[in-house]
Design brief:
Length: 409
């Protein structure tokens, strides 16, 4: 008889129903997160004003502290620093703007001859002949009409920038005046066990921000001075206007080199190829000197960023907030890395070491010493103690690093 085979059928399991319940607390938290994100986007200009004000505070706090160490009261030190800053800014405006306007007028008057020289230079090569013809036949009527239409649109933005800049300046002044109360309020809302760590973060932020701003000022002034001496020695007209523009443009990352060298080299075309070559080579050499020698020397340890982090931070900052975002990208990136280091965050793939264990032990010892010294003390006085202890430890760590570096050499 044929054998009949039956295929075994697995039993049908009953369908499982998954019920998702969202608790009211989770809904409230999600709503608060969305609201905070929306509020942050709406108040982004105000946030940038606060960030700029804090950067000003971080830049000039060491100067005020230096005056305090020489028996000058804090109020007097703040008045001296901010008064000197205001006088320096007014003096720069008075000395620079009239000459700048005159040289810009002269540059406009010389524009036809300059354009003709550039066009002749471009038409000398078959590859750039079309550009030379286009430059020769350039009509300004349409450009002037379009520029006039955009002047009113940009004037509102210019007024806003000036107003926000003034607001950041005065906000920084008020923060400096009310430093003790603001610092005491910040330390009051933070658990006493975290005061030492928080004070280290504040000190490192001041180092990062102050070093970055002071470095930018120094490099821009040196770029402007170098350009003025070079262009004046070569007899290039409008040297002051070009130098001021080049010094300001040197702030911008990546594109700053083109904005400083481009106008300077174009202005030398009326002087012949020899002057063009001298200015081009000298500017290129100085840019290399600035990036290789001057910037590391000026910034020192304020910014310790890998090249990949620098590039990513500049792209992200420029995408989020344009030029302002690109300018703030590097100190923000350095601050984030500093926070990761100070919070003792263990990154993926990072192994603990004996040095890390020593740092953790030193942190615990500092926190215990701080708790003993500030028992029953108000938050404002405790904040001063925490900052003093963190400053002492930072100096000791810096001296130890310098000693190790010297032994390594």
């Amino acid at each position: 008889m044929p054998v009949e085979y039956r295929k075994s059928v697995p039993p049908v399991r009953p369908r499982r129903r998954i019920r998702i319940e969202i608790r009211p607390k989770s809904m409230i938290i999600a709503a608060l997160v969305i609201f905070c994100a929306w509020l942050f986007i709406k108040l982004l200009p105000v946030v940038l004003v606060l960030v700029v004000a804090l950067m000003i505070v971080g830049t000039f706090s060491p100067a005020v502290a230096w005056l305090e160490a020489r028996k000058i009261r804090r109020g007097g030190g703040i008045a001296i620093v901010f008064g000197s800053l205001s006088l320096a800014f007014l003096a720069m405006m008075v000395l620079t703007i009239p000459a700048l306007i005159e040289q810009v007028k002269s540059l406009v008057e010389q524009e036809p001859a300059l354009r003709r020289s550039v066009a002749e230079f471009l038409m000398g090569s078959p590859l750039t002949a079309s550009l030379g013809e286009a430059l020769t036949n350039l009509k300004y009527d349409a450009l002037i009409k379009d520029a006039g239409e955009h002047v009113l649109a940009y004037s509102k933005s210019l007024v806003e920038v000036v107003a926000y800049s003034a607001g950041a300046f005065f906000l920084a002044l008020y923060i400096m005046i009310d430093r003790d109360r603001l610092r005491g309020a910040a330390f009051a809302v933070i658990p006493r066990a975290e005061h030492i760590r928080f004070s280290r973060i504040l000190i490192n932020l001041e180092t990062i921000v102050g070093g970055y701003i002071r470095g930018q000022v120094v490099t821009c002034l040196m770029m402007g001075g170098f350009m003025f001496i070079l262009l004046t020695a070569c007899g290039v007209p409008n040297a002051l206007a070009l130098s001021v523009f080049g010094g300001i443009a040197d702030v911008l990352p990546f594109i700053g080199i083109f904005l400083t060298m481009g106008p300077a080299v174009l202005a030398t075309l009326v002087k012949g190829p020899v002057i063009v070559a001298i200015v081009f080579v000298a500017m290129l050499a100085y840019e290399e000197f600035e990036s290789r020698v001057l910037v590391p020397m000026v910034y020192g340890r304020a910014l310790r960023l890998p090249s990949s982090v620098v590039l990513f931070a500049l792209i992200a900052g420029g995408t989020l907030a344009g030029i302002v975002g690109a300018l703030l990208a590097l100190p923000v990136a350095a601050a984030i890395l500093m926070l990761i280091d100070e919070m003792r965050v263990e990154l993926p793939g990072e192994e603990t070491s004996a040095e890390g264990d020593q740092i953790m032990a030193a942190d615990k010892e500092s926190e215990q010493e701080y708790a003993r010294r500030t028992e029953g003390m108000p938050a404002e006085q405790a904040a001063a103690v925490a900052l003093n202890m963190s400053n002492i430890r930072k100096k000791e760590e810096s001296e130890a690093q310098d000693k190790q570096a010297g032994q390594g050499l």
